[in-house]
Amino acid sequence: MTLSRVDQLLEFHKQDPDDPFPLYALALEYIDSDQPTAKLYFDKLLLRHKEYLPTYYKSAELYIEIGNTQKAKTLLEDGIKLAEKLSDHKTKEELKNALANLLFADD
């Protein structure tokens, strides 16, 4: 029997609950088909793995999609601070561009 990608990711998470990647991948699996479930996984990541930088951009995207631009703005700002702390200049610029686009769209 072949496991689905979601089942595989759940198994990876079960085997190593301290690894943020399976949760991130699960959120991405659900982002187009089941936004509430994707949000749950992103929120879990933000609670348990605050230093997992990829979470900030994609979760902000989801919050924009569901209409919570204030939460998206906060996520982008927090991601920028984390990227600075981690000296990840490329991701910092991507987050800054996303924030500028969000602020421009809100005007």
In short:
The chain is built from six helices and no strands. By secondary structure, it is mainly α.
Structural account:
By secondary structure, this protein is mostly helical. The protein has a single domain, classed as Serine Threonine Protein Phosphatase 5, Tetratricopeptide repeat (Alpha Horseshoe). Helix content is 78%, strand content 0%. It has helices at residues 5-15, 20-30, 35-48, 54-65, 69-85, 89-106. The longest helix is centred in the last third of the chain and has 18 residues, at 89-106. The chain is globular, with a radius of gyration of 14 Å. The model has no long low-confidence stretch (mean pLDDT 94).
How many DSSP E strands? Answer: 0
N-to-C order of helices and strands = HHHHHH
Largest β-sheet summary: none
Strand content: under 5%
As for the number of domains, it is 1
* Unreliable runs: none
Please give the CATH class. Answer: Mainly Alpha
Helix tally?
6
**Overall helicity:** over 70%
State the distance separating the first and last CA atoms.
52 Å
Counting helices, strands and paired strands, the structural category is mainly alpha
Which value, in Å, is the CA radius of gyration? 14 Å
CATH homologous superfamily assignment: Tetratricopeptide repeat domain
* CATH-derived architecture: Alpha Horseshoe
